[in-house]
């Protein structure tokens, strides 16, 4: 019997690798002789560097950078064996780098991310992949662009060197004549798991800025600023970003990848599963156990579980989901087609934990994985 363990991290508690180990201990109590393949996953956001480095043998590099408020810090990125740099935006521009009282997208910027990209360019890259997610910023990537040599001017022709969303409405012209020449011809892509556009009711400012500390008045100012940035990108650089699916990701960084770097956006989980050769791993598999902290409506829209389920369905391999919470109740069958039955095993099924309001620990995840291995019919 071959069983694949392919969970996401349980955000704020356990890494995907820790979850894998807990699942494995539970599965072995049911199938001690099974071949168990541990494949920790991520959807292109936080944790992706660790997942891909562990799976591909990539190498960590360290460089000087800045946090969203301009304070110095050291940031790591990964060089994959194929000459590709993998940079996690959250490590230089992440919300987790700020105290709660410091969250302010009017001042928080992405200059530090640009410094990390510059350091990676020293390694003669063939490709650059950015992971978007967990950012503290809504600056449309202007800070990153400034670090890479783009120059921004106000209506009087004076250079702008402000950080954060406050620069956006003041931009009257963008000049790209001094940009880093090593960007030319570089294959750039960004991994994201949202489809929000740059502007509008579901855009970067109105959906994500409140999560980063913006009040209603600031949200509207950021919306106006991002609209101005989109206009300048179109008129000064010939890049149209308002219709880019995912352009609103990470405070407009999705649009910046297209507008400033000439790159493209792609599904994070698709990239991770392709890099890990997940479809090949499914060959001869009898069961897949995946999971995340909360299995809800968003889980089936571009997240780890949706990517795993889509591929398992194609290979006719049954899937079990282990999660901390399942608002629909569980264990419950989810309609994923008769060829690929799926069951959900949730912390909500542990009455003592649920009644006490206690968070799951690794022993609980092991127990739920044991139940999944026992009760989910392998093919």
Automatic annotation (TrEMBL):
GO molecular function, one term: glycerate kinase activity
A biological process term (GO) from this entry: organic acid phosphorylation
Coiled-coil boundaries: none
InterPro entries, per the entry: Glyc_kinase_flavodox-like_fold, Glycerate_kinase, Glycerate_kinase_RE-like, Glycerate_kinase_sf
Alphabetized UniProt keyword annotations: Kinase, Transferase
Similarity remark: Belongs to the glycerate kinase type-1 family.
The protein's name in its UniProt record: Glycerate kinase
UniProt organism field: Candidatus Glassbacteria bacterium GWA2_58_10
